[in-house]
Amino acid sequence: MKSAVIVFPGSNCDRDLAVAIRDVTGTAPDMLWHGETELPANIGLIAVPGGFSYGDYLRSGAMAARSPIMRAIVEAAGRGVPVLGICNGFQILTEAGLLPGALMRNEGLNFVCRDVALTVENSQSTFTARYDKGETVHFPVAHHDGNFTADSETLDRIEGEGRVAFRYAEAVNGSSRAIAGILNDAGNVLGMMPHPERVIEAAHGNSDGRRLFEGLLEAVA
Amino acid sequence: MKTRVYVTLKGGVLDPQGKAIHNALGSLGFTGVNDVRAGKLIELDHDDGVSDADIEAMCKKLLANTVIENFKIERA
Fold first, then answer.
1. Does any CB of chain B come closer than 8 Å to the CB of residue A147?
2. Could you read off the pLDDT of A8-37 as tens digits, one per residue?
């Protein structure tokens, strides 16, 4: 599977994400600098990593969402190419308009860095097909701006359409309706604050994140 | 020529930073403050030819996230 990890100035989870993709799919992703304007041909997965792109200037993800490569990503997403945004990647995808809502400063203002329990809400998507609906998984979070916010009409719509992929099973950051990860309307874009790429093998403490990449491989290959 | 853009959170959006500032004011002994909302002031120094419509487009495309924020343009 041809894939790309997008690298912005200040990304810091790009290598972890590349290792997870390489381990599960057997092929190392292209590391694509944000200043590029084209994606590799026949791309099967675009991964937008965590970190602090542009030092979180203006708003988390705001500057990265306007960088040259994003035009190509928006276009590819429109064609149905799977796009996975984790942590800062989620913030970037909302700022780019690929996902609804916004990620605000955590309630309580603390940077939250620990393993959290999540409930899988949708097991039908490209990203979550290897999970069971209602299953509890444990992924680490590490963020300051993970407090998902949208107007109640938007929240009702994404809930009604089954677009909440993961929900926090404990208090984490004040997110509306405890939302941890959401899908776009076509189901090919997932943004999530927790880090599945940090739990892909037993040595990481658990391997709950591995199935996300396995499901993607199966769907795309 | 200078223009100021004020970016503030929309009314219904909870403001964790404003809330923390409010609490800190209380702990310093200031009373009578009912609410605090924190925002941003962005100053643009630009050519005279930059129109109101241009600045509004800048606000909508980058300076404010209109999902959660309002903006107010004040031309000098």
1. yes
2. 999 999 999 999 999 999 999 999 999 999
* DSSP assignments along A161-207, one per residue: TT-EEEEESS-SS--GGGEEEEE-TTS-EEEESS-GGG-SSGGGS--
Residues of B in contact with A111 (CB under 8 A): none
CB atoms B62 and A62 under 8 Å: yes
Q: Where are the domains of chain B?
A: 2-75
Looking at the annotation, which residues of A are catalytic?
87, 195, 197
A51 strand-pairing partners: A11
Structurally, chain A folds into a number of domains equal to 1
* Residues in chain A closer than 8 A to B13 (CB atoms): 104, 149
* pLDDT digit string, tens, across residues B26-73: 999 999 999 999 999 999 999 999 999 999 999 999 999 999 999 999
CATH topology of domain B2-75: Mth169; Chain: A , (3.30.1280)
Query: Residues 18-47, chain B: which have Cβ within 8 Å of A?
Result: 20
Residue A116 sits in a domain whose CATH number is 3.40.50.880
Q: What is the ipTM of this complex?
A: 0.86
Taking the CA of residue A61 and the nearest CA in chain B, the distance in Å comes to: 11
Q: Do A66 and B62 touch (CB under 8 A)?
A: yes
Could you tell me if A79 and A10 are in contact, meaning their C-beta atoms sit under 8 angstroms apart?
no
Closest-CA distance, B74 to chain A, in angstroms, reads 19
Range of the domain at A76: 3-220
Can you tell me the distance from the alpha carbon of A29 to that of A47, in angstroms, rounded to the nearest whole number? 9
